[in-house]
Each structure stands twice: as C-alpha cells, then as structure tokens.
Specification:
Elements: E1 6-10, H1 16-19, E2 24-26, E3 30-34, E4 42-46, E5 52-58, E6 64-70, H2 79-99, E7 106-111, E8 120-125, E9 128-133, H3 136-140, H4 142-153, E10 157-162, H5 166-169, E11 175-180, E12 188-192, E13 195-199, H6 214-220, E14 228-232, H7 238-245, E15 250-255, H8 258-271, E16 278-282, H9 285-294, E17 299-304, H10 316-333, E18 334-344, H11 351-365, E19 369-376, E20 394-400
Parallel strand pairs: 1-4, 9-10, 14-15, 14-17, 15-16, 17-18
Antiparallel strand pairs: 1-3, 2-6, 4-5, 5-6, 7-8, 8-9, 10-11, 12-13, 18-20, 19-20
Helix pairs in contact: 2-4, 7-8, 9-10, 10-11
The structure holds S-adenosyl-L-homocysteine.
S-adenosyl-L-homocysteine binds next to α7, β15 and α9.
Length: 401
C-alpha cells in the first residue's frame, strides 16, 4: 500500500458488502475521504474501525463513489496489475469458448466487474479490439490498459466505443475513435460457428454485434427445419441467418432501423445467396404483430429479442408492460406446438420477473405453455458470483402445447 495514497473511510457496518466481495461503494456508505483524490485515482478503503479493505477507483460525481480494484490492501494498482488481470481474463475465454463448443473470432474478452476490472469492456472482432471505458477508473488507466491489451493479444487495432450514456453518470464525456492502429473498415467480417457476418464497429449498436446471443442463436437450429419463422427485432439478421442454416421454410424479419436491415440483407446473401424465402419489414414490432393478428397470419417459431425496456429496476414496471404486450401477441400468432424464443436484456427485470411476465402473457393469450429451456448470456459474458448485476440477458424457449 502506498502510504501517501488517499483514503476512503466507510460508515459503520458499510464494510459488509465489500467484505462479501461486492465491488461498489455507494456515496451513502462513505464517512470520509482524505487526501483529495482526483477522478479515477486509486484510494485505499478502510472500515470505520480502521481495517484496510483494499483499494478502489474514486468517482467524485457518481452515486457509485468508488469501485474496488483489489481486496488485497498490499496490491499496487499499476500497469502490472492490469496485465495480470487481462491475462487471467484471456485464458478464461479460451476455456469458456471451448466448453460452449463455439468457434468464433468475435467474443467478449473483458466483462468489467465480472472480470474484476470495473467499468472496462473489451470485445474482439477478428483483428480489431473494441474498448469501452465506462468508469472513471478505467478512463484514468486508459493508456496503460490499451498498451497491455496490444501486448498480450497481439492485436494492433484498438477502437474506442465509449459513446454510451453510462459515462455521463461518471462525469465523463462520450468518446469514440481509433486508440491504436488503423481506422476500422466500414464492415469487419467475423465468423461465428461457421457463419459469416459483417459488423460495423464504428456505428453499430453496443460494440457492433450481439455476441452475447451466440449460444442462443445456435439453439434455434434445433427448431427451424421446414418451419415458418418470425424474427422480431432482427438487427443485422443474426437469428435469421441461423434460421436459414437450420433449413427454415420461410422467414419474416422485422426491425425499425433501415440501416441495420440493409446489413441484415447483406449478411443473408453473404452466407446463402440463393435463399429467397425471406420477407424484410421495416417497422415497429408492437404494430407489426398487431397487423399479423388482424390478418390472422400464423408462424411456427417466433424470436422476440427486443432492446432494453427497463435498464434499471426503477423502470421495471414500464418495461414489464412492453414485454407482456409483445409476448401476448406472439403467443396468439403461434400455430399449435409453436415455439417462442423470448428474451429480455433489461438489468432491471430479473429472470424470475421475466418468467412471471411471460406466464401472464400466455394466460391472457389463452394458451398452455411449457418452458423447454432457460437461456442466458453467452459464457464469454460470465457473471461474478458476488456481482449479480452482471447477469442481464435472460431468455426462455417456450412451446405451446
Ligand atoms: N436479435 C439481434 C439483436 C436485437 S437488438 C441479434 O441477435 O443480433 C434490438 C433491435 O431492435 C435493434 O436492431 C433495434 O433497431 C430494434 N428495435 C428497437 N425498437 C424496435 C421496435 N419498436 N420495433 C422494431 N425494432 C426495434
């Protein structure tokens, strides 16, 4: 421990979550800060009785006033610290991707708090790394982190996508652009389970592609042969391309953005230039599902993969209404024995609540439904056992009886 470093002293009893390895120190838990630390600097954390608990990065304007870097008070936070953590995360990915039988050159290398690097996201897309610095601590060490990433991955192109709302809460501005290496091409081609996808890392949603759905996309292959599919919120067509691979009879795909639909069409023809049983709809899923209901159009399998309706628990009620609405309509559009792949990526909606919402939707739609499988984010997005907030994607494969 550096004797000159700033100190953060907790109020009585507020050391308990930290001792249980939760990494966040909320402003209300802080009794005193000494040493005048600047945004992102490392502070030593103490209980009110003077026990050294470890070190954290300081965030003066966020409600999360500090995030733990280390629970070892002796551990220095420096370039070597990041190198050691990044090496562990990279080795873990090799194992995780092997276990999930995934062959891919696009995956999450660092998943922030769940990889013990609060606020740092790093995704690999072929020969590009895409980085998001989402906390003051990650921002403070941005140069060192980029150097170490290049050193241990051997990837020379590092692109930043810190153009996200979460930065505002940390008092940081939005940032985007080349950190190292070349300007990315308009599209980077990646390969996921033998399928090719074009990814726009500079303008695409998240860091360009929904790599978190990889394991779930593969599951759809079991249900698509000869079926009539509806892919709602299709983005750049990933579920659609898998459905073609799974020999679907016909696929209808909906998204509200014409840019992503254009890329979805390209992705389909890149893999299956001769498949033409496709309908693309640029529209609002809430309205399009109602049109199908009114025209009595039916499907054998529906995918519902909407954007976050409830990013935080406070928005859960409003989010729940959105999920109920689309799930109810989807159940009504399914043929007997029809299959629904339904997802929520809202941090504010737990998997228990999501299951309740879907159950309510089935009840109101007047259908009897079984859960065939519960789905999660792909294993390159692991959840820290002491950080349940890291679990955000939940899904159900439902079957109408
Ligand atoms: N299933 C996709 C990811 C979906 S992301 C994949 O595996 O790649 C959510 C998508 O929903 C985005 O492409 C966004 O443009 C679209 N979207 C958001 N609101 C919508 C709405 N009301 N109607 C249709 N599409 C919408």
């Amino acid at each position: 421990m550096n004797r000159d470093s700033s100190r953060l002293i907790l109020k009585q009893g507020r050391e308990v979550p930290i001792e249980r390895r939760h990494p966040w120190i909320f402003s209300g838990a802080v009794a005193k800060i000494s040493g005048n630390p600047k945004s992102g600097e490392t502070v030593q954390v103490f209980s009110d009785t003077g026990d050294a608990l470890g070190s954290a990065c300081f965030s003066p304007s966020s409600k999360i006033r500090a995030r733990m870097w280390s629970w070892d008070p002796q551990e220095e936070i420096d370039k070597d610290f990041f190198e050691a953590k990044l090496r562990i995360a990279i080795n873990t990915r090799k194992i995780l991707l092997n276990f999930s039988n995934a062959s891919t050159n696009a995956y999450r290398l660092i998943y922030a708090e769940s990889d013990f690097l609060p606020g740092l996201i790093v995704d690999i897309y072929a020969n590009f790394l895409v980085v998001q610095y989402l906390s003051t601590g990650a921002e403070y060490w941005r140069g060192e982190i980029a150097d170490v990433l290049e050193k241990i991955t051997g990837i020379k192109n590092i692109y930043e996508r810190s153009d996200v709302e979460a930065r505002r809460l940390e008092g940081l501005t939005q940032n985007k652009g080349v950190i190292k290496g070349e300007q990315p091409p308009v599209h980077i081609e990646i390969n996921e389970n033998g399928l090719r996808f074009l990814v726009d890392i500079s303008h695409g949603q998240k860091t360009g592609f929904y790599i978190d759905q990889r394991v779930n996309r593969k599951k759809i292959l079991n249900y698509t042969k000869g079926k009539n599919i509806l892919d709602c919120f299709c983005y750049t067509g990933a579920f659609t391309v898998y459905a073609i691979q799974g020999k679907a009879k016909h696929i209808t795909s909906i998204d509200s953005s014409s840019e992503v639909l254009a890329l979805a069409i390209e992705n389909c023809s890149l893999n299956y230039p001769n498949y033409c049983d496709l309908d693309w709809i640029k529209g609002n899923v809430f309205q399009e599902l109602r049109k199908f209901r009114d025209s009595n159009t039916k499907f054998d399998l529906i995918v519902l993969d909407p954007p976050k309706f409830a990013p935080t628990a406070r928005q859960a009620q409003r989010g729940a209404r959105g999920y109920k609405d689309i799930n109810l309509l989807a159940f009504k559009l399914l043929n007997p024995s029809g299959i629904l792949f339904t997802f929520s990526c809202s941090g504010g909606v737990s998997s228990e609540l999501f299951q309740k919402i879907v159950a309510g939707a089935a009840l109101d739609a007047g259908v009897k439904v079984q859960i065939l499988e519960k789905l999660h984010q792909s294993p390159d997005h692991p959840v820290g056992l002491h950080f349940p907030e890291g679990e955000y994607l939940k899904g159900l494969i439902c079957r109408i009886i």
